[in-house]
Model the fold of this input.
Amino acid sequence: MAVLQYVFAIAFATTSSARAAEPPMKAIVIHEYGGPEVLKYEDVPRPDPKDDQILVRVIAAGVNPVDGMIRSGMFAKYEKAVFPMIPGADIAGVVEKVGSKVTKFKPGDPVFAYVTLKNSGGYAEYALMTEHEAAPKPNSLTYVEAAAVPVVALTAWQALIDTAKLSHGQTVLIHGGSGGVGTFAIQIAKARGAKVIATASTANQDLLKGLGADVVIDYTKQKFEDVAKDVDVVLDSVGKDTLARSYGVVRKGGFIVTLVARIDQAELNKHGIHGASLSVEPNSDELAEIGKLIDEKKIKVVVSQTFPLAEAKRAQEQVATGHTRGKIVLKISDEPK
Done:
């Protein structure tokens, strides 16, 4: 599956490996695979940065569907986690300490990041990262809003810009437009000068319009293929039947990117189109570009709910419903004044 590279990179964190002479920190810790009940709110050693690492005091952490997939052991047959594990990849916070080789950041800098280190997940009061994973926090965002950005925004960017090469004047069909990736994909595509067709349920039609979608499709009432025809790019975050039906709406020579399944090469050949299964990767330069678009008011962030760190179980349960508008965020500490 396309998500596996992301899964393998994400925070398979062991509290035992943290080097911490300092006071302990609060974190959500997993000691075994299972349902949301295996998420434990515990004291763990505070990590200490190596020469090429940054230690960030986490103000807020984003919650992604894949967090629950990892927790449940869905990917254990590909790579087993080392327990105990701290989950989480999206963070926003303040640099606490930097290693001797770090040049881009200093203590006190506000940052947001897609954390992929294997020894420091984001559901914690402190997290480790490298310069390649972090970027300056957009000035116009709160830390809660900033924590909702990295993974989903980078996914949308890498799917549309890096992979499909979406350009001005093209038309893109975005499935799941009201979700975390979808809300950013609509706005990134519009900033690129593309025409956007997006799908969502009845309750989210106004949201799609507010984000700038040119054509909105209520998938509960109409088939997207009756509306979207000969599009240049399709971004699929649904898979299954939705992906199978999408090959036929792409113009010859166009591109389809899926985030949740394997591309069917036979279907690509049949329709004369290109395609890819995407695995998102951290990229501080792209994250900084996204931050600039946010500060220029070309992208707005949708946060539907916040939970305290101790209630990560409730947050993951909500995300697992598959009906979250934008993102859910864990609020870990108060915003700096």
The CA atoms of residues 176 and 200 lie 6 Å apart. The first helix runs from residue 4 to 9.
